[in-house]
Amino acid sequence: MVSQHQPYCHAETLPRRTALHLLLLTAISQDDFRTIVFSAAAMEHKNARIVHRMQHALDHPVSIYHPEGEYLKGLMVEGS
Is residue 52 part of a domain? Predict the structure, then answer.
């Protein structure tokens, strides 16, 4: 079961030791999400680097008065 304080990060293995991490949650900022992903890599003693960041498309604007609309976060991470 996924708790409110420990978000679930879905990782799908891709070629060349690349992982795609996606988060659909407003309670965690982009910076915190990046910290979670890199903390997991550090705990496993893996080197990791961001090769691509993902977010909402341009046709999905986020209102400055409703930051909760910015719920899609994604990182493509390459590691060894």
Answer: yes
